[in-house]
Amino acid sequence: MRQYEVNFIVDPVLSGDEIKEAAQTYVNLIQDSGNKIVHLDEMGLRQLAYPIKKRTTGMYYCVEFQNEDTTFIPKMELALRRDERIMRFLTVKLDRHGVEYNDKKRKGLIGKKGGKQEKLKEEIKEVKKEAVAPIAKSVKSEEE
Amino acid sequence: MASREDIKFLNNPNIGKQRKKYCRFRKFGIKYIDYKDPDFLLQFINPQGKVLPRRITGNSLKYQKKIAVAIKRARHLAILPFVADNLK
């Protein structure tokens, strides 16, 4: 059992439904060939570091799956290569550390982003408390 | 008797000493380098987008190779640029 990760960038000029459809065809292709999908990550519209086919942005997708049939990967890559909607793709075989890392990342244990978001959430909570507190106080004073 | 601590140096003896470099992956137990994380990889490239040598970053050979592979993957996916003028 090998675990792979395939990243692809879909042309952002297509309409929203077409982009989703393009991504879905490959998810279906992976699933129908008897592979187990571990995770589908939609990274959304991202700025490219350099223009590809005169586009400066792209829709990023990352599919993580478990595969037993070794002939499947070349088949999938050929399909991706022939598809005009796909700007770039990259298939990576994950080692055990990679699997572990992705697992932890999904749970939010790794990454500065998770930390920042948690801090933001705490700040929001504090702000709400502060906003609620004076009202509660005024209500109390009125009662008195 | 004047102890060692009482002696005052005219010049700070710690200035000019180089701090020992270390491999951060060995030290903190990082085993997987994420090629989708540009902020992390930015620590290992110079403002032109080139990979920094081991003598500057202090990485061990094993992890320097992994860093190089991760940067190349990121470049292919347009997460990092191949060439840049002012990255940092």
Q: Order of strands in the sheet with the most strands of chain A? A: 2-3-1-4
Unreliable runs of chain A: 113-117
Residue share in helix of chain B: 25-40%
Mean pLDDT of chain B comes to 87
The coarse overall form of chain B would be elongated
By secondary-structure content and strand pairing, the structural class of chain A works out as alpha+beta
Q: Which structural class do the helices and strands of chain B define?
A: mainly alpha
Series of secondary-structure elements of chain B, N-terminal to C-terminal? HHHH
Strand fraction of chain B: under 5%
- Number-wise, the strands of chain B total 0
Descriptive overview:
The complex is a heterodimer of chains A (144) and B (88). With 144 residues, chain A is an alpha+beta fold. In chain A, 50% of the residues lie in helices and 33% in strands. A four-stranded antiparallel β-sheet of chain A has the order 2-3-1-4. The longest helix of chain A has 32 residues, at 112-143. Chain B is mostly helical and 88 residues long. Chain B has four helices and no strands. The longest helix of chain B is centred in the C-terminal third of the chain and has 16 residues, at 61-76. The termini of chain B are far apart. At the A-B interface, strand 2, strand 3, strand 4 and helix 3 of A face helix 4 of B.
